[in-house]
Amino acid sequence: MAFRPRRALAVFWKDFLDLRKNVGLLVSMAVLPAVMVLVPIVVVWTYVNTPNRADLRSVAQFYDPTLPLGASAARFLIDKTLTDWFGLFLVMPVFVPILIASQSVAGEKERRTLEPLLASPVTAAELVAGKSLAALVPAVVITWVAFIIFCVGVDIVAWPMVQGPLMPNALWTFGVLVIAPLFAFFGNGVAVLISARVSEARMAQQISALVVLPLVGMVGGQVAGVLKAGLGFYALQGAVVLVLDVVLLFASIRLLDRERLVSRWG
Amino acid sequence: MSGIDVRGLGKRFGERVAVEGLTFHVRPGEVFGLLGPNGAGKTTTVRMLTGLLTPSEGEAVVWGHRADRDGEGLRKVVGLLTEQPGLYERLTARENLRFFMKLHELDESKAWPRTQHYLERFGLGGREEEPVGGFSKGMRQKLAIVRTLVHDPRVIFLDEPTSGLDPESARTVRDAVAELASEGRTIVLCSHNLSEVERLCERVAVVKRRLLLMGPVRELRRSGQSLDVRVDGEAERFRNALTSLPFAPNVLAEGMRLRVMLEDEAHAPDVLACLVGAGARVHSAVPAQRPLEEVYLDLLREEGA
């Protein structure tokens, strides 16, 4: 069976159209980026506005006991916050496709639209491609837009102290442009896989969302001072996720097999 | 080869046999009824013939496409109306139809006039830009039928096509089915509405995991005739006399009317003699064909016994 891009694009077109009309889902998709952008800007603003608080040095020295006396603890903590926050920021490209893909795959079962869809000439690979695109494109666009707002916001609030642009730095630029799409693909793959196995979109979202826990755990390790994550760490993480993406892609195509879906859910 | 050719078709899900040994042929231009109780394997059969399930045994060729080898080609020539309309509620009627045009890689400028014709025919003209979520059950059903036809399929499977429709709309659908068949398309109708099957189908097959019976509707009805008798007074009081006859016919009594089911037309004089002997004043006695429903129910009763 040949892969026909037109049919994959048809699935993308329909899912994207449906997403644009799903106000509830759009609102839930907007909440996470808003939090991801606003929280670090407020934290940086706090450091910039209270640079001489005595306890800042203690906190900074907890993370780096070799911090020179003359160095600004507030500036150190701003850099530390921006580095650590990238780990949490990655939750967004994972989570947004989970919200969308769970709706689009398990939602077809819930709405009883699966059988007419599968009775068309579309193949499993075209279905996976179309549905994945419909989840990935908004996820990556939202991540990039949030990143731009984040950079502008941080630079504005940090300017009085830094007197220059802090963002985008190498870690964030590489991370958002290269690693975030890989993570988005990962979130989408997990959601498609789980959606193919469960009957309800809500259940698919809840189970798929568990994959963000390791990311949150790693950020916890950074905040606790037991994990130092930089560009190399995230590049390694991205390579692992790339391998997982390939595995998930093939598993999704296999699980979205017409016979399996119809005999179980049709 | 056009039409549908099924030989020894069967489907197993693990140890469970859903369908076995089905053999039948449906001609182009024919409306064929597929009957059977719930869980009899009708849906499984339709799914095999529409390329949704791969047969476990046997062979099915639908308009020249083998169901086990050419599912994609097969799905291009068949249209399937599922029991549930299965429409995208946030999308408009037009968007729902355009999606299926795109899936079939149709040139929309050519496909749309034909689709518009069906929309008008089913009373949905002018409602194209409305979200399907606001449609009534009947409108959804009609839109699902139009969606089944967007790619001009040669073979059409209709599962309960008039479910949820008012009598006028049901009639429109029945007329459309007859018209589609007259254009040379093969139509398979699955329905529990046997009077509708009787009106639309030339032949029917009754399945209950395997093929129980198949033949032209006319002959099936003739295979069991009945005698409609009108008597003076309450007909019910003659029921016992009739059921004690040696051939023990089934008897329905309603008001002054008796319907006596006969295995053999030759028993009609015995029925009348019995009634007269029991003191009935017989006004009229008319031989009648049994409705398909009774033939069908008797068949299932025999199968159950």
TrEMBL record, chain A:
<feature type="transmembrane region" description="Helical">
    <location>
        <begin position="207"/>
        <end position="227"/>
    </location>
</feature>
<dbReference type="Pfam" id="PF12679">
    <property type="entry name" value="ABC2_membrane_2"/>
</dbReference>
<keyword id="KW-0812">Transmembrane</keyword>
<feature type="transmembrane region" description="Helical">
    <location>
        <begin position="233"/>
        <end position="256"/>
    </location>
</feature>
<feature type="transmembrane region" description="Helical">
    <location>
        <begin position="85"/>
        <end position="102"/>
    </location>
</feature>
<feature type="transmembrane region" description="Helical">
    <location>
        <begin position="133"/>
        <end position="159"/>
    </location>
</feature>
<feature type="transmembrane region" description="Helical">
    <location>
        <begin position="23"/>
        <end position="48"/>
    </location>
</feature>
<dbReference type="GO" id="GO:0140359">
    <property type="term" value="F:ABC-type transporter activity"/>
</dbReference>
<keyword id="KW-1133">Transmembrane helix</keyword>
<dbReference type="GO" id="GO:0005886">
    <property type="term" value="C:plasma membrane"/>
</dbReference>
<feature type="transmembrane region" description="Helical">
    <location>
        <begin position="171"/>
        <end position="195"/>
    </location>
</feature>
<protein>
    <submittedName>
        <fullName>ABC transporter permease subunit</fullName>
    </submittedName>
</protein>
<keyword id="KW-0472">Membrane</keyword>
TrEMBL record, chain B:
<keyword id="KW-0813">Transport</keyword>
<feature type="domain" description="ABC transporter">
    <location>
        <begin position="4"/>
        <end position="234"/>
    </location>
</feature>
<dbReference type="InterPro" id="IPR027417">
    <property type="entry name" value="P-loop_NTPase"/>
</dbReference>
<comment type="similarity">
    <text>Belongs to the ABC transporter superfamily.</text>
</comment>
<keyword id="KW-0547">Nucleotide-binding</keyword>
<keyword id="KW-0067">ATP-binding</keyword>
<dbReference type="GO" id="GO:0005524">
    <property type="term" value="F:ATP binding"/>
</dbReference>
<dbReference type="InterPro" id="IPR003439">
    <property type="entry name" value="ABC_transporter-like_ATP-bd"/>
</dbReference>
<dbReference type="Pfam" id="PF00005">
    <property type="entry name" value="ABC_tran"/>
</dbReference>
<dbReference type="GO" id="GO:0016887">
    <property type="term" value="F:ATP hydrolysis activity"/>
</dbReference>
<dbReference type="InterPro" id="IPR017871">
    <property type="entry name" value="ABC_transporter-like_CS"/>
</dbReference>
<dbReference type="InterPro" id="IPR003593">
    <property type="entry name" value="AAA+_ATPase"/>
</dbReference>
<protein>
    <submittedName>
        <fullName>ABC transporter ATP-binding protein</fullName>
    </submittedName>
</protein>
